[in-house]
Amino acid sequence: MWDILRDAERWPEWWRGVRRVVVLAPEERYRIAWRSRVPYDLEFDFDVLEIDSPCCMTGEATGELTGTGTWRLFEDGDITAVTYEWNVWTTKAWMNLLSPVARPVFAYNHDVVMRWGGEGLARRLDCRLLGAG
What we know:
Largest sheet: 6 strands, antiparallel
Strand content: 35-45%
CATH architecture: 2-Layer Sandwich
CATH superfamily: START domain
CATH topology: Alpha-D-Glucose-1,6-Bisphosphate, Chain A, domain 4
């Protein structure tokens, strides 16, 4: 699972919602374009800041989103749990203007894209997705 998550360039193959990934610096910096149910591509650069293989990776987003994200993998026997802590804010003026009323829509779309990622990862690994939601 770790190797699949680390290979961001191939995310579009299995993660619905990832439109494209451009490698700006191998294993260090990526430009990622996303689309959820809202027909708008959201693009940002992601710099890998810290790696504790095979359990943790932290990075920083800049662009249309700014902030940090951390992947964590936990194993218990044959089960691996994956969490992603994403603390970001938008930089587009129109998004910030709409944020007070559109926050539920933004959150819903984020949850959809993350669910698509979990489902795609489970298919890629040929296993069941547990505890999604």
